[in-house]
Fold this protein.
Amino acid sequence: MIEAIANLLKVLNSETEPGQISLALCLAMIAGFTPVLSPHNLLVLLLVLVLRVNLSAFLLGWAFFSGVAYLLDPLFHRIGLGILTAPALTALWTGWYNTAWFRLDRLNNTVVMGSLLFSLAAFIPAFFLFNLLIRRYRDNLLAWVRKSRIVKALEASKFYSVYQSVSGWRGGAA
Amino acid sequence: MKGWIRWKGLIAFAVAVVMIVLVWFLAVDAVVRRVIETAGTRAVGARVDLAAADLSLFPTGLTLAGLAVTNPDAPLENAVEVGKMTMDLDPGYLIRRKVIVNNLQIEGLAFNTPRKTSGEVPGLARKNREGKERQLAETAKAGVEKVCGTFTMPSLSQPDVKAILAKESLDSIAMARELDQALKAEQAKWEKELERLADEKTLAEYKARIEKIKGSGGSLGSILGAAGEVQQLQADIKKDLDRLEAAKKTFTTDFNDYQARVRSLAKAPAKDIQRLTNKYSISPEGLSNMSQLIFGQRLCSWVQTAEEWYARIEPYMAKTSGGGEEKPEERTPLRGEGKNIRFAESPPMPDFLVRNLKINAALPVGNLTGKAENVTLDQHILGRPMTFAFLGREMKRIASLNLAGTANFVKPDAPRNDAKLTVKGLGLENLPLLDEEVLPLTLRQATGNLNLNLETVGNVLDAALKANFSSAEFDAKTAGKAAIAEALQKALSGVDQFSLNADIAGTLQAYTVDVSSDLDKILKSAVGQLVKKEVAKFQAQLEQKISAQLQGPMQQAQGSLSGLGGIETELTHRLNLGDNLLKGLKLPF
């Protein structure tokens, strides 16, 4: 975990394209919000591995969003219930209910459907938001962070040695 | 764009997928075994052990070996044991999270086998047992109240009339006493009524008024005044006479009724005698269906056992889980896991279905093979009933057994089930039939063929059993000196073959078992005359004793009736006096 945080800090502080970090976080959002054993997460894993996104950002984001998902489960349930029981969509869901992929992915489950829809809807806004935040961080906070006492203290700790050990790795894309 | 693609990632993905598949292959059998044991233990309330599970993908199937389900009421015994269970699963439906078994073969099915170690799970066992004990107690109580309590052998010995009359209250005596009380109350009522009616004194006053009118002078004014008084007097006398007339009419009606009731007292003992005869003495009618007494209790207990099992299974078979409905239906799993919404399927398919089931069971009576089709708890979704057929050949004490039927819960609110059982060469040995002190009866041996047709429609049960037995040998031992019991014993000892018919009808909660047999004729002819003589003797004794007891209260009632007759005499006397007065009252011109 320490290694992953160190790696993320290194990526954030490097010249890595912000989009690669943002995309990793957005994919982590899908994997984290939806139940981990859902088959659609295999597709997420494929995208994470094939697209040049930051793996550390993905792993940390996955852990973070999985934790947040426990808090958001009631919201996901409401969204899923509303969508799946909407009379206007009954014909659509009935058709899809009779397909193997829909049942295999348990998309008739309110939490699965709600969390997937929520994460897909939030995907593009979150991508641009993360991009914006990373750029703002690099422009405004990076210099201050490097000089801060906390970072100085960290530099003297085990954490810094880990940071150093990964600092030679290839920038961000890992 | 090239900068966004990491082709090596494909290899990493492939490796990850292979790893997942490898782990699944290595762990899946153990996981399946564990899941079956855990879920089974929780459901049964006692240990469910599984020696091995083998899940294969190509072809898709599951094989279970060494399945042992502990009997929760006897932890050192397995309720069910299965040697091997082979399932051929439908992979298409498995992806849709439905377990559709095309073929299920069960080999080495055995019941009530011993366990090496106790299969009790303390926490679960307690809960389960409490529920079962409560259920069994309720069922047993209901059973006794329903049918089986009525199979009581009448007393075959001569009842003690003195002891019976000491404990029984007689309606005839109660009737005589009630009538006496009523007559006395009537007497008091009419005596009061007589006080209110015109009596001799009142009539004497009328007479004095008449004399006074007659003595009043002959002037025109006095004559005219007397005419007015005479009219007034006539009206007064007429009014009193009308009241007397009405009272007499009412009295006569009541008196005639009381006379009839006193007369009917003489017949009252007959009802008591009949009631006590029915209660304490064997009647020729009672003997006309001895087979009901002999076989009814045994048959009833079998029907009860079958009904108890049906009651246990029926709630599962008739449950409705939806799925085949047009509207989406919500199902609530564990908290925090959301809800599974079900939509209409085409074609509708239950979550669990065994299309073809083959069973090879090792029962204590021998081997039984069978097959069943469409085994599911959701027949309303499948739209087809479950059919079953079992066959037993050269079993112990049974030459052949055929059982075939249908369990139709396609309409859960109106289930229709039928079964046909044919047993040939059924050997019965030492079968207790009657556990009565006066005539304990056991069927020592018999060989029979029987046919049972059973049908349930909704809650209505209809079954017919026809059986023929040969090489029969009854073991009846008489206790005491009951002549009828001895005669029955003698008649039964001569029976070599007999037929038996039973009709079971009613509802599943309240049914009757009507048994008839050609034994009835044999037994009736053997003891019929004897029973008539015994009954006549008993009735004569009763009549003598009851008449003696009734004599006193009846005489009292007759005395009270005579007293009441005085009221009529008095009323007649007053009416006569009044009539005479009225006749003698004429105008003085």
Remarks:
- The radius of gyration of chain A is 19 Å.
- Residues 1 and 135 of chain A are 24 Å apart (CA to CA).
